[in-house]
Here is the input.
Amino acid sequence: MAGITGKDAVLTEYAHRLETLDAPKGRSLTQDAVRRLVRNKAAVLSVFVVGFIIIFAFAGPYFLPWTYDKIDWSGIRKPPNFEAGHYAGTDQNGRDMLARIMQGTQMSLIVAGVATLVSVIIGVIYGAVAGYFGGRVDAVMMRFVDIMYALPYILFVIILVVIFGRNPVLLFVGIGFLEWLTMARIVRGQTMSIKQREFVEAAKAGGAKPWTIIFRHIVPNLTGPVVIYATLTVPEIILTESFLSYLGLGVQEPQTSLGTLISFGAPVAETLPWMLIGPAVVLVSLLLCLTYIGDGLRDALDPKDR
Amino acid sequence: MAHTTTLLEIKDLKKTFSIATGLFARPLTLTALEDINFTIRQGETLGIVGESGCGKSTLGRCILQLLTPDEGQVLWLGQDLTKLPAEEMRQRRQDLQIIFQDPLASLNPRMTVGEIIADPLRTLRPELNKTERRARVLKTMESVGLLPEMINRYPHEFSGGQAQRIGIARALITEPKLIVCDEPVSALDVSIQAQILNLLAELKDEFGLTLIFISHNLSVVRHVSDRILVLYLGRIVELASGDEIYEDPKHPYTRALLTAVPIPDPKLARLRNIDALKGEIPSPINPPSGCTFRTRCRFAKPYCAEKRPPLEIIENGRLVACHRWREIDVPAEAVLNG
Amino acid sequence: MTEVLKVEDMSVTFELHDSEVQAVREMNFSLSEGETLAVVGESGSGKSQAFLAIMGLLAKNGRAGGRVMMGDVDLLALDSRQLDRYRGKDIAMIFQDPMTSLNPTLKVKTQLSEVLVKHRGFNQQDAVTTSIEMLERVGIPEPVKRANAYPHELSGGMRQRVMIAMALLCQPKILIADEPTTALDVTVQAQMLDLFKSLTEDFGTSLVLITHDLGVVAGVADRMMVMYGGRVVEKGVTDDLFYDPRHPYTLGLLHSTPHIAKRAVRLDPIQGLPPSLENLPKGCAFHPRCAFAFDRCLVERPPLRDVGDGRQKACFYEGPLAYGEVA
Here is the structure.
């Protein structure tokens, strides 16, 4: 029926006329959430602290006289010494602690970011598909998740180390491939409740295909739980990385990470306290802030729960 | 009315749901709809009434193929929708749309009003470009009484009545021939209810729509419908024109429903002798034998438990499913005089 | 008739994080023994909040002003411990969704007998017997079987009956019912309204029926009170308000309600949307939607005043109230 009556042309003109019309922007749910988040002082402070830590880790090394792997033969196991440029002292091998903390933080952040991203992408797609199609598809997909849960985590990590060798980033892409299980379960549950909502039925009545419904109508409505769970995954992966590095499966020398630094600093905490205090302060504040941000996001995205 | 075309014909429709009761237990079967036969003529409004659990919403969704019927045919201008390949059915959806009960739940909270209303066009009319889409959206918004400057707002910024207008605009944008209205006003305030009912009536005239109006509220159905279909436990018990149903109900259930409807008129309300039904609707998982209404029917005889009453065609194409409709005399109090 | 409740100048205010919202303002009414008073209004009219305040059930950020006299006691002046002596015993409330007020993990009889043990000092066995008798009186078939059921095993109508039975166990003087039939099917609704009628007759209970459905009001209420934007706009005997409404809003509500026996071609709805309490129009809150508004309504708020025959209205307009032809 289009084009015969010339109605489209009339309508197009009408649209152009209204194009210039001032249609105020509405407040989206995301904007509302941001507004609520901004009101939460602890969360805002945490965002700033995390932001500072990120800048510290990535921009910091350019302002230091020492790099993380350079050995200062004149200063081994030395406390902070400003004249020599070792602002946070040196380690047993004479490497600058501040540079190493920066590099370690960098590594921890990259690894956590990459693994979280991978787990979110896989978890959301897998969970949404299983939840939306339901029935047999869901049963098969979720049994697979159950099996993955049952297999020992560390076994997979060892296999991954064998596959990826010593590349830490690839290793954590792999860890992301393991971490999505919980995310998939959360997303599946949410999807099952969202697909009961009438707007999904309305989309079906409007002829939308299953994939359109999943990506256009369901996934955007998963933002709340996904963002919240992701902020909880980041600290979890930082801790996993520390643990793996401790076992010697993670980051390798001379590169380092917060976990590695702490595991080296802990045994000598009494004699060389600067080797533990620096990385510990960064790790603790990072984890604490991420938890506050997660809490803040939960309250902001889900105001009814309070 | 004899000349108008039959738009939709429902033949022997049956829909069951299976309810899982446990890992190893056999699932129970719930018969939501059975032996549904009726036609809808172009341009009419068919009201579907019944109490909760009678299958009225399921029927609406089976017509639109949002639920797949187990048996039977849904003939749209002679073409069986249940047999249509997915892609053809998708195209057909231009002609068949739906309006939902809960106006806010039926709008995606992450999309703006403009995006929501344009959504069916994206799949059903992919040849339209962005400007053309927007033009249609604005045009439709205008006809349902939404201001153009609302286009970039989000659903949660609207009240129930306005949200329902958005839902109506989304249903109208594909220029459908038939709209299933599933309890479109029951979630709204009284004064807003009347506005939406009037709007539907205007749109029906303006666009020549055929409406299926599903509601539990008999006063509302009476107000909008040409013919009324009464459902009880997934079966048709009576189908007749609005005036016939209200002035001369044949089925004891229709009668009981009518006398139970609250009347906004104190004197009439006091005069009325409410033919209060005993008890509540039996479970559809295990419906009574024979006539499913017999457990609450005050005219029931022993044979009502043995044989299911057939849906008979009586005068003027009225349908009724009752063994005793000829014998039951309608007492004067059941007839409502305005 | 004896007065059982007198509400004087009551207001309800909610504190939001940066503003205050007045949900109910200047509410005055009294309730006589055995009388049914209907409170009619749309969402946001303050009708539910007013009675939650009387029951001391406001949300944490809400507070009530004025006086609510039950005999010599001002309910609003009591703390929640003192209020417990009256709440449930002299004044009880039931809600639209009975599931929210029933404990899903306890059997019906446990919940009912608990009330008797607590408020009336019954021993356990008597309490159960009395509870089962009460279930029978509110029209529950097979009361012994239902008493041993959990709330989720009952249908909606049955649950609402259990709630009513629970409310009646202490023989309250006043029963407040907030949209008690809205979630029920018409046939069950008719049964419930019958039950309410016999309650006021048999027990002498005064009933406050909060509803938006004028059909429900017509069948059971002696007097009615129409609320809009947090205020009472018209008050009087039910028949008077139905057949001779004096406030344009009451008239509008009547014209918005489809009547099963009269098929009008079109309804005459009230135009526009109900106001938000945060942003009430100046002057008369109803003026933007009122067909009879004139310049005075825009600037001055009409007070609720007597207009004879024991009726009150809050409107300046004195002319005949009708839009063209009245159905």
Notes: Chain C is about 30% helix and 25% strand.
